[in-house]
Amino acid sequence: MKWLSLGLVLLAWLSTAWVSPSAAADQVSSAKVQRGKYLVVEVARCGDCHTPMNDKGEPVTEKWMQGSALMFKPTVAMPWADTSANIVGLPGWSTRDAVNFFMTGKYKGQGPKPPMPDYHLTRRDAEAVVAYLKSLAPAK
């Protein structure tokens, strides 16, 4: 009887501890997106340039990461981007190209125009950033 009880306890524990492969993949994907969100929002602060601001200097949340005219310019003549791109879903970018861009700071041999930094992220962080930005795209 003791072994039967122990077996039932073990079986119950295994049934709650086991995670299906698809659920495990969803957890990994969710963790990757959350890491990407942290890097985009808290570390790189992409929304400061890629989100329009209202007249109080606050981000227009309905247009989060949809690109904007930049509110600042350099004090000396230099190559400069006057606007930021819409990066919701990374339109026009393959996952591979976007990850490579965030790892190397280059796309088709070109670096971004200032004030965009030429990031050199680890593959893990680049994949997380791309996963988050792609997750912002509206469902089709």
Structural descriptors:
140 residues, mainly alpha, 2 strands, globular
What report would you give on this structure?
The protein has helices spanning 2-17, 21-43, 47-50, 95-104, 123-135; strands at residues 68-69, 83-84. The longest helix has 23 residues, at 21-43. It contains five helices and two strands.
In percent, how helical is the residue content? 40-55%
Stretches with pLDDT under 50, minimum 5 residues: none
What is the CA-atom radius of gyration, in angstroms?
22 Å
Q: Residue-averaged pLDDT, rounded?
A: 87
Order of helices and strands: HHHEEHH
**Per DSSP, what share of the residues sits in E-state strands of 2 or more residues?**
under 5%
What structural class should be given to the helix and strand makeup? mainly alpha
Kindly report how far apart the N and C termini lie: 56 Å
Largest sheet: 2 strands, antiparallel
Shape: globular
The oligomerization state is single chain
**Helical segment count:** 5
The count of DSSP E runs of length 2 or more, i.e. the number of strands, is 2
- Walk across the major sheet and give the strand order: 1-2
Per-chain topology:
Blueprint: H1 2-17, H2 21-43, H3 47-50, E1 68-69, E2 83-84, H4 95-104, H5 123-135
Helix pairs in contact: 2-5, 4-5
Brief write-up:
It is built from 5 helices and 2 strands, in the order H-H-H-E-E-H-H. With 140 residues, the protein is mainly α. Helix 2 (21-43) crosses helix 5 and helix 4 (95-104) packs across helix 5 (123-135).
